[in-house]
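Our preliminary data section would be incomplete without showing what the modeling component actually yields. Below, a chain of 447 amino acids is followed by its predicted structure, encoded as tokens that our downstream tools consume directly.
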Amino acid sequence: VSQGSLTQGSLTQAFQVSLEAGTVPKEPVYTVESEKEKELVLSWRNQKIEIRKKISFGGEADPHMLDYTLEVVNLGPDPLELEPRLWLERRQKPIKSNGGFFSFLKGPLDLYMPALFIAAKGQGPKLKIETNWDKLPAKKEEIGKIYWSGLTDRYFFMGLIAREMSDGISVIYGKSSDGKVGSSLSYGKVALNPGEKLQKRFSAYLGPKKREDLKALGVNLEKSVDYGWFSFVAIPILWLMIFFHKIIPNWGVAIIVLTFFIKLLLHPINVKAMQSMKAMQKLQPRLQELRQKYKDNKEKLNMEMMLLFKTHKVNPMGGCLPMLIQMPVYIALYKVLYNAIELYHAPFFWFYRDLSSPDPYLVTPILLGILMAAQQKLTPNPSADPAQQKMMMIMPLMFSAFMIFLPSGLVIYIMVNTIMSVVQQYMIHREMSFWDLLKKVRHKSAA
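Predicted structure:
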């Protein structure tokens, strides 16, 4: 516990106290007044001021929560103007830099970054989280109705919760030159007359970002789990994955079942998109003829093309619109599986002991590349441009390389989704229904 800001002191500690008045030494040595199973009381004093801190731990009710009460007494003859501020600070994780031509093939950085939940004047509350370590300033202040502030990474959150709400709560955060990142919370400046005692209460959460548990605390901490623009889709998807895990207690299997379920829901949209793309592919020779015939008359070309689409009942946007409709679902799925604390150190089978870490033997990324190449072969391509088709065949290799750095749970989802897409395209190519496919599989099994 020390006086000052993020850049002061050489230690990385939690719950540093700064009073911004120069009345406390850089690193005061506190005396333990009392120590119980779930409570710790510390104190420090000089001739001008006394500081007393009471820390009560959550215990069985919530082992990741604690209450923090700060008491300051003015022992001197003069008034003091103080701004009690509580700090959290951590040394940043090592940042690996990959050089060379393939330096772009890396997963997203998982660092400790400042986050807060703030309601600015005239606006509703919203999450504000820094995402760029290089652009993070040494010191930045936010003032408003702030519910909590802290440091977050992919799976864990360390934060301070305001217990005295007002529009003048201040949060200062930033990074130091020696690789630390910090965040703080203050209720604002106060005047303390001689003999007066000031008491401020905070709460803190130090633990995993398990959304259901955070929501049960009732202080909006579940907002620290950031799903981006499509959180309204991501939250039901997370609920579904947890539901499937309760039925089959294996997170890898729950991901496969979830992928299968969502793919079935989106099957009619996929069928419509694939049929439209296939119809467009059949019209390509006619379209090429029209482009050649009316190459000097764009207006006539557009009229003839629209007439051709109308005659054959083909919507040129029919292959794109269904894909756009599905995009929020797939983005939300990515966000859920990348950030889900449920997958942290969760085993699947065999050598897959942690679904939150990359595939240690690269089996799933390689299989995914092969499956995506097969999918490219089966996907109707309305474009007859050979150069574009060759470029599309390179995409599975590039995508497979990116998968090397992503969590194996996420790669399993993408792989299962690709397998089902290949099956769907096979069915559409041969104009088969699910029942026809099941009959064919059963017939081969019987044989």
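The radius of gyration is 29 Å. The longest helix spans residues 267-293. Preliminary results of this kind motivate Aim 1 of the renewal.
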